[in-house]
Prior knowledge:
The structure is a homodimer. By secondary structure, the first copy, chain A, is α/β, with parallel strands linked by helices. Chain A folds into two domains: 33-157 and 337-349, Nucleotidyltransferase, domain 5 (2-Layer Sandwich); 170-331, ATPase, nucleotide binding domain (Nucleotidyltransferase, domain 5, 2-Layer Sandwich), CATH 3.30.420.40. In chain A, 36% of the residues lie in helices and 19% in strands. Chain A contains eleven helices and twelve strands. The first copy, chain A, has helices at residues 33-36, 76-93, 134-141, 152-168, 232-238, 247-256, 260-284, 300-315, 318-322, 325-328, 338-349; strands at residues 42-48, 52-58, 64-71, 101-108, 111-113, 118-120, 147-151, 176-181, 185-191, 194-196, 288-292, 329-331. In chain A, the strands form three sheets. A five-stranded mixed β-sheet of chain A has the order 3-2-1-4-7. In chain A, helix 2 crosses helix 3, helix 4 (152-168) packs across helix 11 and helix 7 packs across helix 8 (300-315). The longest helix of chain A has 25 residues, at 260-284. The two termini of chain A are 32 Å apart. Chains A and B meet through helix 7 and helix 9 of A and helix 7 and helix 9 of B. Chains A, B: InterPro entries: ATPase_NBD, ROK.
Amino acid sequence: MDSKSGSGTSDQGEPSKREVGMGKVGKRKGSARSETGREPAYTVGLDIGGTKILGALLDPEGEVVGTVRRSTVHGADGLVAGAVQAVRDVVASVGVDLADLAGVGLGIPGIVDHRCGTVKHAVNLGVHDDELPLAELLSAELGGVPVVVENDLNVAAVGAAHVLERAGGERDHEDLAFLALGTGLASGLVLDGQLRRGVSGAAGEIGHIPVDPLGPECTCGQRGCLERFASGKALEAAWPSRHGKPSPVELFEAARAGDQEAIVVKDRFADATASAVRLLVLTTDVRHVVLGGGVAQLGTELLDAVQDALRKQAKASPFLGSLKLAERVRLAPTHVPVAAVGAAVLGRRS
Amino acid sequence: MDSKSGSGTSDQGEPSKREVGMGKVGKRKGSARSETGREPAYTVGLDIGGTKILGALLDPEGEVVGTVRRSTVHGADGLVAGAVQAVRDVVASVGVDLADLAGVGLGIPGIVDHRCGTVKHAVNLGVHDDELPLAELLSAELGGVPVVVENDLNVAAVGAAHVLERAGGERDHEDLAFLALGTGLASGLVLDGQLRRGVSGAAGEIGHIPVDPLGPECTCGQRGCLERFASGKALEAAWPSRHGKPSPVELFEAARAGDQEAIVVKDRFADATASAVRLLVLTTDVRHVVLGGGVAQLGTELLDAVQDALRKQAKASPFLGSLKLAERVRLAPTHVPVAAVGAAVLGRRS
């Protein structure tokens, strides 16, 4: 099963969205802050992926004041040690003390129980069947700072909402879907300002909605799943990498150069991605759909293609047209590690 | 365009889900209650449909203590007069005074602006292009009691959540999709205890998500929309009424009698409805999907068919199996007018 795989922000390719429950682990001993009840101060967020850990330090106003990047060491011990070091490095880089942290948030693929702060089945991180009490282990190493653990797509959605809101100065509620075009296809949802996890952590799992009864079989056991048309894996199958660059880059280059086959494949991919946007809006009516994941590194070329496809879809349908789908789509911010920022935001709320 | 038509609970067939904004109209003069800030007392909810108005009176504990049913009189004047009389009748029937009402909620098809309390394009009610300030007009006729107006599918979802929660004594948040198998197909969403309207009132508009590229054209201008397979209209097209009973009743009777063609049509319909359930869960991961609308009057026979179809879909997919879709589905309560109850609940929150 490849659900939620590919994920939003990192390059691991594992089931990553199922999580179970609400809470945090860790209680700082001797901290006056937790008793005073005033706004959380600095928080750190980490986005733990298959190859790298990205970290962000938020100041008390929610501004990103430091970032960090480390290679991931697989397995429980390596993960914990790497995460601890990432936290220490990012606070040290801006002269903040560990004791000034109000909380730490982690975004991680795999089956996350956010109530208990545990993760399992993060296969690309070397975490298998046993539940890893990541929040507890990390908190212990960091002097008791509260640690929350969350699914990687959920932190990406929260991070995108945070960054967009600050950039746009919007006074409305944060409201968006983070559509992760990674190896697979899945999304994270922030609705009316609240992270929507769903009762079994499966909210946003749109990659496995069948959209073509005659479509190819999916690894999930169904046929014609949306992920088979709109994902990095789907692109790689339709346009295998030939020149050492990522498949999406080669495809878009070939299309730009006028290769007719590439144009067809590109248009089909853009149409499928547009269908994912349409599906998200017709179900949740989110204000924005933010394109993220590896494929979104194509940048404005991808955005243009998806918006064109949305306008084409709306042409025959005044109803679709009235929803202004193309105007809702945007690219995930790239000037900050958005999932790490989201993890830090959740760390603030803990 | 037939979007949101058929709706959940009444028999009108009009675009009914687009609404714009949060607010209420009406301020009781001289009421001590609004100043004290204590819990709202009695509230009335009305479900205004193309042929009938259903009303419910909730006591301060949220119990349904009275109901009423009137024929709808079309056009602005008739609607307002009918609604006023329905409110007067239901409070009188249990000896409650109009002055004891903390609020009134209306559920109505058409394009509802719940911030302003207006409705337009409720064509089956004789309300056309001009915005009808329904909340204001009704409030004025009812001595200034606050009136809220809401889309009919949204009140159905809120009502179903209220009734299920009270019946089950669940301590968790209300969390469900009300899937209206009316003339058309659409849904209302209550997520984490909150009504989800969406930024343009289009949340739950799943009937117009295409699920088959080779499917029939839809009135919305797209092709292969889910509504073309899972709705009263789709059933009527596949199995026209021959003996004066509603098409779904005749179809299920014929299938029960062993008619092979009927069995095929019934199975296909159940599978399409199961697909709607799957789509709702894979996007929003709601705890329950409640089957409502005219077709749901089939009762347990429909429930069984949809649950069987869900189990069949899950057979090939451990992933789907893990989501326990069949267990999430239930029938809308029939012992109370669920949409009217939902309207009354929103009246309480006003």
